[in-house]
Design brief:
Elements: H1 6-21, H2 23-31, H3 39-44, H4 49-59, H5 65-80, H6 89-94, H7 96-108, H8 114-127, H9 134-146, H10 152-164, H11 171-183, H12 190-200, H13 206-219, H14 228-240, H15 246-258, H16 265-275
Helix pairs in contact: 1-2, 4-7, 5-7, 5-8, 8-9, 8-10, 10-12, 11-12, 12-14, 14-15
Amino acid sequence: MKKTPVFLESLVTNMLRLRAICPFSWRVFQFRPISCEPLIIQMNKCTDEEQMFGFIERNKAILSEKQVGCAFDMLWKLQKQKTSLLKNAEYVRDHPQFLTLHNLATNKFKLMNDDTLVNVLYVTQQFAGEAHDPLVEALVTEAWRRLERFDIKLLSEFSSCLADQHLYFSPLMGKIADIVHRNLETTQDLSSLSVLMVNISSLISRHFQQQLVNKTELLFDTIDSSEVNVAKSIAKFLRNVRYRYQPLLERCNNVFLSNVDHLDLDSISKILSVYK
């Protein structure tokens, strides 16, 4: 019989000793999964929808409500990276794994934190193909239940979701207007307030309009001179309520003029449409 080399005998003996001393470590080493990365990190590495859908298919049984929210967010980020000619919202909406994600959100939305809930609502609306998506309706109802605890930024984002559904005159938008009114004195975020002003403009009294204009004047110097969208929202609010308040319009004009070299034609067209 051929004799086993001494170095092999020594190697085998040492491995057996190591296994006897550390059986747990041996098992961990032997059966460790190929990828130990957290699921959210894996999602962030996806570079197209197909990779995302493959990820959803592999992990649908274990995705938490937070991870479901991140999956919606990632799909929307991928969509926004495309040019207008390459956008494929219909393809995403009709994909079987988007339906899987949709169903997961339907089952888990009550467990979502407030930010995730509103973000999933926003993304679902961007991809929604039917006028009355059951998930959208469920998310809106749940957000209404939580409304009083939303901060102004989240309230602003939620009001924009309602505006996308043309719910300007709804009782829910009226409730948002009431919350804005009650908290106006302590509000310091003009970016969020300016969006809310536009979205609630159809429901508020002349006295409340004046209060909003006064607050906007107080906060205007807190925004950066490059905040074109804020200035545009303020000008749009003044147009909506038919209030030609020249001092505030002049301040908005200065923002537009100081940024005109950085605006594309679409942005300039939208600004001009407000002034029309």
